[in-house]
């Protein structure tokens, strides 16, 4: 197995392409947009946050979700119209609650391991992605939230991530621009932030330099495999579809991965969980001085922030279960702007760019990394709320799996020849 196709040019597809090219594979990446990272990897929260490794499969998420059902500006919103996809996803979500601790620890472990890969690739390839290594501060307004964070910290520590509690006074010295009164916080110095779109495009260019065929504007219609060959059909404007054959295929198609998996006889029950972001343009000196340099995570409102360069401030969050729907709703954007105005009163919010993206989320909140049913089919997808944080390590893991599968195929072929 030497030639590998990758479906999807978001962060997961591009990191996978880069890793496989470095391992000597002949890689072709198919992306339907004209550029890499135009869907969920476009304008996310920017956090490379091992400290956000807590999975959501907890009874408190269900309780909060029910409470928020009828509030249009709530952090979590579920369209109550039942669909088989949504019901099956929620049933599996609930079934995963007993594994909350194990999955949180494992996610933290992966997030910590991801850093060394991502940082070294950026340095090696000279990628500027507004990387800021100032840590992430989790903020709490009440004792209940703060106490829960204490328990989460114990799990994170088991995954290899130290973070420590800070008083409101210490919070003020960590991030002097933050207004408001707080019960306390947790600070993780080792976490960082950066622009996912810039990084993905930088790494896509590096992958192309390594020989990856990066094919943009290619809308993959079908994918099939007989275990030895994978056949990909791409739609063509005003012409018959083009057909491409490879030794293997990796599905990294974000929320479209579920459909491709179904074509390949696999079940990858990803649900599109919509989130929103705003990018506030810091056009004047007062706004630049009034915006935080340290990244924040407000656990109550479920908002995360990143300072991207001198003149951009990103705020992202909210979760909406409403199928494949990319509408940017004004009533979901407004709370993000109000939060900025409340927490950072010196920022001018005249120039704000809204965005919505669909998190490709597995019901157990763990990415699907590994082999499919057919011997030459692989998945690196379903990273949910932490795709930016985890993608470098899952690409590395997938690289091992594909290399191992190739070695096995080689051993079997050699044995057959010997017979
Ligand atoms: C509001 C919000 C905030 C977030 N904040 C953070 C954060 O702070 N930190 C963090 O770690 N994560 C965060 N995330 C999650 C993270 O952004 C995602 O997990 C990650 O971007 C998913 O990457 P992906 O490659 O799986 O999907 P995508 O980026 O969506 O890439 C999939 C690609 O497949 C392509 N594709 C699909 N179908 C086809 C087809 N038929 N033919 C060809 N190409 C196809 C798409 O065009 C797309 O480019 C956030 C997400 C959201 C929505």
Topology:
Layout: E1 3-7, H1 11-22, E2 26-31, E3 47-48, H2 59-68, E4 76-78, H3 84-95, H4 100-125, E5 136-140, H5 143-158, E6 164-166, H6 168-174, E7 184-188, E8 192-193, H7 196-209, E9 213-216, E10 220-225, E11 230-234, E12 242-246, E13 248-251, H8 257-263, E14 271-281, H9 285-290, E15 295-298, E16 303-308, E17 312-321, H10 330-343, E18 352-361, E19 368-371, E20 377-381, H11 387-418
Parallel strand pairs: 1-2, 1-13, 2-9, 4-17, 5-15, 13-20
Antiparallel strand pairs: 3-8, 5-7, 6-7, 10-11, 11-12, 14-17, 14-18, 15-16, 16-17, 19-20
Helix pairs in contact: 1-7, 1-11, 4-5, 4-11
The structure holds flavin-adenine dinucleotide.
Strand segment count: 20
Roughly what is the average pLDDT, rounded to an integer?
96
Structural class: alpha/beta
Q: What distance lies between the first and last C-alpha atoms, to the nearest angstrom?
A: 21 Å
Helix content: 25-40%
Shape: globular
Total number of helices = 11
* Residue windows where pLDDT falls under 50 for at least 5 positions: none
Major sheet, described briefly? 9 strands, mixed
Radius of gyration: 22 Å
**Which ligands does the model contain, each kind named once?**
flavin-adenine dinucleotide
Beta percentage is: 25-35%
